[in-house]
Structures are given as C-alpha cells and as structure tokens.
Amino acid sequence: MTADGFVRVAALSELELDSPKRVVVADVAVSLVRTEGEVFAINDICSHANVSLSEGEVEDCSIECWLHGSSFDLRTGKPNGLPATRPVPVYPVKIEGDDVLVSVTQES
User: Fold this and answer.
1) What 8-state DSSP symbol labels residue 82?
2) Please, how many CA atoms are within 13 Å of residue 29, restricted to the half-sphere of its CB?
C-alpha cells in the first residue's frame, strides 16, 4: 500500500478492453474496467441485487448487472435506469507504468 492508500491490484496489460476483472482490495470486491482509454474501479456488488457486476457487460462507459439489467455509470456509480435506484461506490485509480492501483479508502 502506498502512503496515500493506493494498492496495486493488476497489471494494465492484464485488463482486456470492455471486459470487467474482479479483484479484492482490503476485503472490498472491486470490478476493474478498461474502456474508453481509461481504467475504472467500481464496487463489484450490484446495489439492487447482491450480484457480481464483474460478470456483466460493458458498454458506453457503463456496466450492466447480468441478473436484472441494472446499469451503472463507471465514472459515478449512479444507476442509468431501473430496477436499481441506489448508486454503487466508485474508487480512484492510478496508473504507474504497467501497474494499476486502486484506493478503496477514498470514494470518488
């Protein structure tokens, strides 16, 4: 862990475009998504149903829950439509060389 709370969670080269990758940071399940030239970190659990978002589809900077179709903005965690009504936490990401670092102590 760095002094500012960031933890290395993956290599950038391990992240496929538009394909979520589940990682665990300090006991928090996080879905990493590389899309639109950025890497995003969003809590991996759908706020509508206790389901892993990393098993869903990525499109237009959103991740969709495979179970009921709730979609969340990767930048803000806000739902894009029903059935979810509550956002999911998003976390800051830093890229250092090929290292992807996430801080779950700071929500964006």
Assistant:
1) T
2) 13
Closest CA relative to residue 89, chosen from 7, 30, 36: 30
**Ranges under pLDDT 50 in the chain:** none
Distance CA 100, CA 15 (A): 10
Output the CA torsion sign for 28, 39, 99, 90: negative
The Cα 102–Cα 6 span in angstroms is 5
Cα(61)–Cα(103) distance, integer angstroms: 20
Residue 86 Cα distances to 45, 55, 59, 60, angstroms: 12, 19, 20, 20
Both tokens assigned to 88: 């999911």
As a whole number of angstroms, the distance between CA 87 and CA 80 comes to: 9
Q: CA 53 to CA 30: how far, in whole Å?
A: 9
pLDDT at 108: 58
